[in-house]
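Entry type: protein chain
Record version: 2
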Amino acid sequence: MFTSSDLELRFLECGLGPFVPPPRSGSQRYAKTELIASTLTGAVKAAGKNSDVAKGVMELIALVAERCDEEQFGRLREATRSGGFDLRRADGEARLLPLDEPHIPLGESVSALEADLQRLGMAVAHNHYRQAVDSLTDGRHEAANGQLRAMFEEVVTYMAVQQGFSRAGQGAGGRAISFLVDNGHLPADDGGLYIRGLWKIVHTNGPHPGASPVGEAYFRTHALTAAARYLIDRFAPPA
């Protein structure tokens, strides 16, 4: 969609000029792919520490989106959603909108839950959760959902066992929740209905190809991460 010269102008327009590789000696020019890769690699690295650079990268994505045909726009939108943004286009203007809450970065919640799972010696739950996060990052949303469900079941069952529940093999998540609610450890009006509702949700659109849109995968990651941390804080808080 762009010539190399056009790309260089767009980089300058978006404030990404400092990341454009310096001119080569003689008349040799950079290939377009090399120009893009070199410039954006440097810009993306700097964007995490410099809000102006981050804004410039987003402006560039919007400029590209405005030139995309429908198929290209669909691919670019899916890529940006995997990065936590919702790319929209209306009347020829493209905008990047937040998909995740910017004031509560998902990465911080992920790190906190992983630390708790390790603290409690919940190796199976930790392994499922790491695989879920890796799958989400790689764009394998169905796989992420399946691993999140397995992690959540391990956490729920672990907490129920601590209260006297007897686990007989795998697949005890639903019974563990019923045990916690029915015995007053997790009253219906004090978290019980919330946990039971999430348990029902995670049994739809599981690890089946094409069944899980990216927004749903991000929602499940947020919701199940928060729910697992809620259960741990309630039943097994740090000393």
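Comment: Strands lie at 85-90, 93-98.
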